[in-house]
Amino acid sequence: MTVLKTSLRSFYAHKWRMVLSGMAVVLSVAFVCGTLVFTATMNNTFSKLFDVSASNVVISSAESDLADDFAGTGGGTGRPDTIPGTLEQELAEVAGVDQITGSIVSTSAMAIDQDNESISPTSGAPTIAANWTPIDERSMTITEGGPPEGGEQVMIDADTAENADLALGDPLRLVTAFGDYELTVSGIAEFETTNPGAALIYLDTESAREYLLDGAPELTNVYVDSDGSVSDTELKDAIAATVGADTYKLQTADEYIEENSDAVGQALSIFEYVLLGFAGIALLVGIFLIVNTFSMLVAQRTREIGLMRAIGSSRRQVNRSVLIEALLLGVIASLIGFGVGIGLAVGLMALMSALGMKLSTDDLLIEPSVPIIGVVLGILVTLIAAYVPARRAGRISPMAALRDAGMPGDVRAGRIRATLGAVLTIAGLGFLALTGSVDEASAGAGYLALGVLLSLVGLVIVGPSLVNLVVRGLSVVLLRGFGPVGRLAERNALRNPRRTGATATALMIGLSLVAGLSVVGSSMVASATDQIDSSLGADYVVVSETPGGIVPEITGAVSPERIPELDHVSEYRLADVDVTLDSGEEIEVMAGAVPETFSADIDVTVVEGDIEAAYAPGGLSVGEGDAEEHGIALGDQVQVAFDGGGETTLTVEAILSDDAAVLTGTWMFNQQEMLDNAAEAPLPFALYAGAKDGQEEAAREALDAAVTPYPQVEVRDQAEFKELIEGSVSQMLNMVYGLLALAIIVAVLGVVNTLALSVVERTREIGLMRAIGLSRLQLRRMIRLESVVIALFGALLGLGLGMAWGAAGQRLLALEGMPVLEIPWGTIIAVFLGSAVVGLLAALLPAFRAGRMNVLNAIATE
């Protein structure tokens, strides 16, 4: 009980010194709890939607893939997987059936408003075109106008109408794989549950069949509602007996809801794991902050602890006292973090609503496990971080404490740590180097993971031993010009290497990830642009910004027949095919189907054979790596099977360097083979256009004019094509940098906390310096310079380590056809200079407080 009272009094007496450490726990726990609440709420709202729309039995194509549906790929053909429309009549006589509803749904349509702008959501969700049925009435209510009647009317959802500024009577174009249709808005419907984020376009059934299925008498789903006389399972069995158990996908309501929920959950799980990963990084950084805080508090209370030991307190009691303080900090910070996490989840919901997915806080789901996970995690992290300082406090002897106001470091232990850290760092760098010795990226992934882990742990351990060397080097460049103030700042940074190392390590972790990802991202862009410079022969590339491919209306508009300035246009299609080799081995590959003119559009490196023969009917090209792995040789004949059962025999006419995979892939054959044998050929993924000599500018103008009615399509020359790739990678990296900002914020709190506690620790020293003539301005400058040096020390370690990680990662990318190593020196230098600014800002408050100290009171401080 005495220990508890002492801990409570000590915690209350030093509560303001623990605020910043608590903030690190608050932020990390908030990120974890907010992520869990947000994803649970998303899953819950979608489950409600599926629950409302589900029938007792749902029938769909055996080939339908919900992952593709949620990605909006439409199977690549522009036509969804279908089932015969005659099923409705076949099911009418099944016992227990009350109502049968046929549905037609496509995710490959594009809707364009009267201003020639796409109304697709900015969130990247697909545009869903469907027929209006009683199933939709379960989740939506018509608020204006009425449902579509005839082939010239369309109804849209209320959120899309608001975002696109559409009203009743406004014109709307619907572009599908089968035509370009002029429609008029006849009604607006509002979701009763949640808006999944997509743009909903409703047609009447006959028009949907015409526009989405090219008039085929088929459906994508059949919803069967029972009359209540049989269970869902019994009704499913009865339907299976009528239409065949393996012919279609048959699902009860529970199975339908579960599969849809799992598909949504799978899509959200990536988002969830990414956010939790960055929360984990922030927690790791927070550990160093907490270790520093308790180490400094223990050092500042050395006399106090020594007196406790002198009057009878045992080592265990002192140790327990520090851990109880950490427990209090963990509990309070974790509870606050949980509350902040709820606010973060609400904020994420508001962000998603702004992007088109209307989520209501009424659906906010806080599972009982969330506060438990958050609080337990926060407490464990705090206790683990405080354990070493607590043990150190327990080892203080009464006489040593009464003789000295601080704790001397253990020189022998420091040497052991330095040796261990150096060994781990060298071992980690060795594993990173081994990534250059493997022949496959998958084989080198383990080396990369081990290298990253060991080098990080090693540098964390050896960091304090590097303080003397690195800080002195930085001081020569940065501090010596400030005279005595600069030398004082240098000595303060060198005074406690362990503290300086731990403070800088927190910043090092975040910056090492930034540097590593920057190198990988820049290398990806450099490799792709190098491939474009060296191999792209086409003058222009026509690409679609929406999934599903380029529809025939567009391919017809940009053909040489319509644009005489063009020499040729090569359609590049992609499809999954099953390949049977001479040896009998069967493999599934993603292959490109191209015309013979494609050899003029992309210049690939041919290891063996003739690329023109490979692009001719009956030919095939294969990558060097696949040829070696599967024993494929020039002249081999292989069987290629397409979706729908069509097959053809192709001869290997060329073996390509794997570098060709960056732009086109290495498995390629003549597209006529696909058109002749596939049940339905995929839409072109891209169009490569070559202009006639001397008519490049006229061809560009004609191409731009031809695609103007289709805002989802863009014409890009080689420079613009490179910008497209660079923009995609930059967008991804910016999102990652934004998430890493959490770890960097926690690291900055660590710098602020270290300086603030250091000012308290040096109160008497500061008073004496002020008494002998150090001005307030000089004092504040000294603290700011100390902070800058610590921040730059962390930046040097982090950026150096990150570049090593990035270089090793790029070696694995080289095995996937991205051979160029690009160090983004501009980014690296900007981050390094930004670290100095961060150090400067972190010192503002501690420096201000130090400057306000009363000189006499500071000198009198014990």
TrEMBL record:
The chain crosses the membrane at residues 273-299, 322-350, 370-390, 416-435, 447-471, 504-526, 735-760, 785-805, 825-848. InterPro entries: ABC3_permease_C (IPR003838), MacB_PCD (IPR025857), Macrolide_Exporter_MacB (IPR050250). GO terms for cellular component: plasma membrane. The keyword Glycosyltransferase does not apply. Residues 278-398, 739-854 form the ABC3 transporter permease C-terminal domain. Pfam families: FtsX, MacB_PCD. It is found in: Cell membrane. It comes from the Bacteria. This is FtsX-like permease family protein.
